[in-house]
Amino acid sequence: MADTTLIFHVSDIHFGLEDKQAIAWFADEVARHRPAAVAITGDLTMRARHREFAAATAWITALGVPVTVGVGNHDMPYFNPIERFFAPYRRFRGMREMVERELDLPGLAIIPLKTATRAQPRLNWSKGWVTPAALDLCLAAIDALPPGTRALIAVHHPLREVGTQGTALTRGGTRALEALATRPVEAVLSGHVHDAFDITEETANGPVRMIGAGTLSQRTRSTPPSFNALTWSGGKLAVEVRNLQQVATRDMMIEDVPPDALPPRHPGEPVAPIGAVPAVDPPVH
Q1: What is the number of alpha carbons within 13 Å of residue 187 lying toward its C-beta?
Q2: Residue 51 half-sphere exposure toward CB, CA atoms < 13 A
Q3: What is the per-residue pLDDT across 53-82, written as a single tens digit (0 to 9) for each?
Q4: 172: closest CA among 131, 204, 208, 116?
Q5: Are 89 and 99 in contact (CB under 8 A)?
Q6: Looking at the domain 4-250, which fold is it?
Q7: I need a surface site. Which of 13, 72, 107, 219 has the fewest CB within 10 A?
């Protein structure tokens, strides 16, 4: 019987507006099943406040398993533009060794690809951007893997431009998918849209599997709080969506990545003051 590796994929926890029942349930699932790794694909916090990062750090370190943490658009300093530009990862210091960390598992590696940037040449900085430098770094990590090893690419934003030439979710996403299709990539793991999906994206160089995780926050979109349980066995990757309301996985999967995803703003959720990093739209993802 082939060895089985279990990975939990979770995203968009949004400490500051987290669902306390959901994060406790996830921690219990980790303690019960002891996955080989946990991949968190960004948006740990709601407004990148120090207290939100402190809560996220305490929760993650208590999981007691290997964790890799991606950076989401909500994790960039929001009310401090100077820090955003010159020290955007400073608030991750309590978990710095986990941020954009490659995790090597039997026959499989989780490799980060950064899509959240401190600034970009369009007004809405909440959307994704795969820069050439970020893509080159990811491809080099894939190329350095031992022969026969497959890669799971961890991003925050889904790598899909939805035919809008860089104005939708992820600028450079099409180029990234085409490049990843030429490598031994098993799937691209993402978050951001607050709903789970498992789809195949066709590219000029072949298909790429895209797997999205839901949210553990109060900012649900069309499905309840959830995470993905990924099972790697016999060279095949299976996905099961686990959620608080015990909805079957088939019903949890949305059919496609939406062209834009705007979870409803929670009552009492703060709106940024005028002049505070004006290029960021506060009520997104």
Answers
A1: 21
A2: 3
A3: 999 999 999 999 999 999 999 998 777 777
A4: 131
A5: yes
A6: Purple Acid Phosphatase; chain A, domain 2 (3.60.21)
A7: 107
The torsion angle over the Cα atoms of residues 264, 267, 269 and 273, rounded to 10 degrees, is: 100
List the Cα angle 192/284/226 in 5-degree steps. 40
On whether the pTM is more than 0.70, the answer is yes
Amino acid at 60: I
β-strand partners of 210: 188, 199
Torsion of CA 46, 226, 262, 44, to 10 degrees: 20
Q: How do the domains of the chain map onto residue ranges?
A: 4-250
**CA 106, CA 174: separation in Å to the nearest integer?**
29
Residue 73 pairs in a beta bridge with none
- Dist. CA 94–CA 224, nearest whole Å: 29
Phi, psi at residue 242, to the nearest 5°?
-110, 135
Strands across the sheet containing 236-243: 67-69, 37-40, 4-10, 226-233, 236-243
Compute the distance between CA of residue 220 and CA of residue 149 in angstroms, rounded to an integer.
35
